[in-house]
Structure formats: structure tokens, C-alpha cells
Amino acid sequence: MKITYYGQSCFLFEIGENRVLFDPFISPNELASSINVDDIKADYILLSHGHQDHVHDAEQIAKNNNSTIIATFEIVNWYGAKGIEKLHPMNTGGKVTLPFGTVKMVNAIHSSSLPDGTYAGSAAGFVVEAEEKTFYFAGDTALTYDMKLIPEQFDVDFALLPIGDNFTMDIHDAMIAADFVQVDTVIGMHFDTFPYIQIDKEEVKEVAQMADKELILMEIGQTIEL
Predict the structure, then answer these.
(1) Which of 32, 102, 164, 202 maximizes the CB count within 10 A of its CB?
(2) % of the chain residues with pLDDT over 70
(3) What's 174's domain CATH number?
(4) Which residue(s) pair with 68 in the sheet?
(5) Domain count, the chain
(6) Cα–Cα distance between 207 and 225 in angstroms, integer?
(7) What is the 3-state secondary structure (H, E, C) of 51-90?
(8) Comparing C-alpha atoms, which of 78, 73, 46, 75 is closest to residue 61?
(9) Which pLDDT tens digit goes with each residue over 109-155?
């Protein structure tokens, strides 16, 4: 399973022959200025919630690739009005089987509205169970006891967790979340893009080490394999 990072909370997963993109916020992100949105290929686009720093490039990428957007019912309707034809609505607790595996939408504690102020339903995270790996993409969230339910249903290999604080969990809460989900490997996200969420990378690495977790902080444009 190959993972490419495009900044903020945007990751592209290559799962078999399928390319699955999460939360595309690229073109307005100065830290991702080296990334050409039109070069990104995606079969599916999963949106955790409606905030601009998670959906900004979804319409362009979807239209470029005839991608399927997967999100809450409200977000899917919003994109349908924009001419996106391939859409799959979900809501918290639901699960769908797709060519690359199953996707379950799980709870996240966060607000959610679309860039024009339209109500976007509840924020969410995703648990993706593929043949190669099972992973948890938390989206933007606070630490919540609901995370303890995830390992009761899934054997999670790694988690993508926000660590930037202010709008989401910080690194300390993220390490507790990793314990709740029962993972030892965490990919950090939602940090450094804005002054409010800038982090000290050495400090967060030390916190993860003290928690006996492997914390992966990817560089924008970097591809790794897990």
C-alpha cells in the first residue's frame, strides 16, 4: 500500500489498482506549492467534513478524473449541484463495500460546514479495511471514547491522526487515541499549514517516543509504503 502526502490532511492511497484520495486541500496551501493538482489521479475522494482546508480541490480533481466522491449526505448533495455525477452518500456508522475494500464512517468530534456556509452534516472519520492493510483516518477530531469501539470491530494496522492542536487533538491526545485504537504506528496530519497549528517537530517526536509509538511525519510530495 503506497501513501503520498499532499499537505494538511490530504493523502493519496494506492490500494491495488485503485487510487483513494482523502481531504484534498492543495492549491491554496503555500507549503504544497510544488504540487500540481491537475497531475493527481484519483478514483475515489473521501471527505471527512466540509471545511475548506479539507475539500478545496475536490471538485476539480473529481471532474478531472471522473472520481466518486464519498462523504456525508449533505456534502454529496452539495457536490451534486456542482455537476459531479459519481457520488456515494454516507452517514456515521454506515459501511460500504468498494473495489478496494470496505469503508466505515465513524464518529469525529468537530464542526462541519462547506466553504459557502452550507450545513455539511456531522464531521466524520473513516476506517478502511483493504486486503493489504486496515487503517483509521480520523479526520479533524477531538479525543473521544468512541475511538475505543474501533478495535472491537477492526484489527487496525495504523492510524492517521491530527496533531496540530487548537482545532483538533494535539500530540498528547493523539497518543491516547492511538492507544484507544490499539495501533503503534501513527501518521501525523493537520499541522503546520497555518500559524494556529504549527508544531515543534522534535517535541512531538519525543512525545511519541515516550508513548512507545512510531510517529511518521511525511514531507509534502513524499510517498511511503506500509
Answers:
(1) 164
(2) 100
(3) 3.60.15.10
(4) 44
(5) 1
(6) 24
(7) CHHHHCCHHHHHHHHCCEEEEEHHHHHHHHCCCCCCEEEE
(8) 46
(9) 999 999 999 999 999 999 999 999 999 999 999 999 999 999 999 99
